[in-house]
Design goal:
single chain; 474 residues; alpha/beta; six-stranded mixed β-sheet; three-stranded antiparallel β-sheet; 9% strand; globular
């Protein structure tokens, strides 16, 4: 959820094309060291659990977790300081660790007390959007805290603390030079980063040129991120190319429509979405239903789908179909997609392939819903119309769907609608897995266990299975 919201907000920023988000999922302690070596980040972002004993990390065997205290983390960043200029610890009770780290890298963010998942997501997404607009760390931090106020998380605003190291002024600490990465050098005599920062090139006049690279690490089933200047290097959370014409042309905004309506509806909708994504259906459903009754199309789509699935309420197919039809009539992408699926499954409505295809194609063509594209692909694949299925899966990949990479990878593996190409299949599976798909991680375990397109390797298989389990794959 956190990474998705950060990606969504960064897409709206002025310098979005200059930032690449690197994510590491379910990272163990050794994976952390490897990631710091691979990414050479400028910002490290930890999203996970913390307590009085420190941050919670998983050991090398992934079988137990332990706390890492402030002194140990300070030693870690002494060794892996490199270009790191900021560390964000988005975990409870992380202020002592942030204070120790700031003395090493120059600046850190931590929390005084507990922080809710919703507040942590709002803060991170708003903070990195401000960074991507070219604001300095200090300004980005205040913007993110203001976002908490506006989203009614007043009590958690002061939980987050920005800790500068000696001689560092966060108001002058730019990760992207003012005017963008191509603006040249900026005179910043006030910024004196602690330690050997030779990796950040300096001119003879003492100015610096920021190499925009932020790092993030996903630990203990959590997620973390890295923002890099330029393209998509191997191993990042973005999707690198597979030498394939189906590569996505541009990031896709989440499908769906949202009608703001009366004052406060938009923020209520966002809070309901946060609860829904976190699996807190009992909290999300009443909010969605109130908004649906106020004629919000997107909320109608959520309510309809939740009635059909019994999420946060008793399953009621007739009510589900009613709300989905209302949402679809108002051009909501989720409503169209779920209504088409209801017709296809005969759930709440009499089975009708014609109406299923009608609504799924409207969602795919008019709203560019990647989920509608995937469901059309699955429909035609089940009917053994492989050429058409391949086309829909390819369109979903182009629109930015990770799960569609797995769908079309399976078609390459089986030679359905295209030539059999195991190397291409493995590449598609791996990019989805590295970007955080539990299904992709599971399939990577299978192909290593069975030697499909790669040498058989039980150790690698087990490693991928453990990663999939750590992010919730049953």
């Amino acid at each position: 959820m956190e990474v998705r919201e950060i990606r969504h907000k960064v897409r709206t920023a002025r310098y979005r094309d200059d930032l690449v988000l690197d994510t590491r999922w379910a990272t163990r302690t050794d994976d952390l060291l490897l990631a710091l070596n691979e990414t050479n980040p400028q910002v490290v972002h930890f999203s996970g659990h913390g307590g009085s004993g420190g941050l919670v990390l998983v050991g090398a065997d992934a079988s137990h977790a332990h706390s890492v205290d402030a002194e140990q983390l300070a030693r870690l960043f002494e060794v892996f300081r490199g270009d790191i200029r900021l560390v964000v610890l988005n975990a409870c009770f992380s202020l002592p660790q942030a204070e120790a780290i700031a003395g090493v890298v120059g600046c850190a963010i931590g929390t005084r007390t507990e922080i809710s998942d919703a507040a942590a997501v709002i803060f991170s997404a708003s903070f990195y959007r401000a960074i991507a607009f070219g604001h300095p760390v200090g300004v980005a931090f205040e913007q993110a805290r203001t976002a908490l106020d506006l989203e009614e998380h007043h009590e958690e605003r002061d939980c987050l603390q920005l800790v500068p190291g000696p001689g560092v002024d966060p108001a002058e600490l730019y990760l992207i030079p003012p005017g963008g990465p191509d603006a040249g050098e900026r005179q910043t005599g006030q910024v004196q980063l602690v330690g050997d920062m030779a990796a950040v090139p300096r001119s003879k006049t003492g100015s610096w040129r920021a190499r925009t690279t932020a790092g993030g690490l996903a630990l203990v089933g959590a997620v973390a991120l890295a923002l890099k200047l330029g393209g998509f290097p191997a191993g990042t959370g973005e999707v690198p190319p597979c030498a394939w014409a189906g590569e996505p042309q541009a990031p896709m905004a989440p499908a769906g429509s949202s009608t703001a309506g009366p004052s406060g509806v938009r923020s209520d909708l966002d809070r309901a979405k946060v609860d829904y994504e976190a699996g807190r259906y009992a909290a999300a459903f009443p909010r969605f239903r109130r908004l649906a009754r106020s004629r919000n199309p997107e909320a109608m789509g959520f309510v309809g789908a939740m009635f059909l699935r019994g999420q946060g309420t008793r399953a009621h197919p007739d009510s589900g179909f009613h709300w989905l039809r209302e949402a679809a009539k108002r051009d909501d992408a989720r409503g169209m997609t779920e209504l088409g699926t209801a017709y296809l499954d005969g759930n709440g409505a009499k089975h009708s392939r014609r109406w299923a295809v009608h609504w799924l194609k409207r969602a795919a063509d008019e709203k560019r819903s990647v989920e509608a594209m995937r469901r059309l692909g699955a429909l035609y694949q089940n009917e053994q119309k492989y050429d058409t299925a391949f086309t829909w899966f390819r369109d979903a990949v182009k629109a930015g769907s990770l799960e569609a990479r797995i769908d079309i990878g399976q078609m390459y593996e089986q030679g359905q609608g295209t030539r059999q190409d195991l190397e291409m299949a493995v590449c598609l599976y791996q990019t989805a897995a590295e970007a955080g798909s539990p299904r992709g991680m599971l399939i990577m375990g299978r192909i290593h266990e069975n030697g499909i397109g790669v040498p058989r390797d039980d150790d690698r298989a087990q490693e991928w299975y453990r990663k999939a389990a750590a992010v919730g794959s049953p």
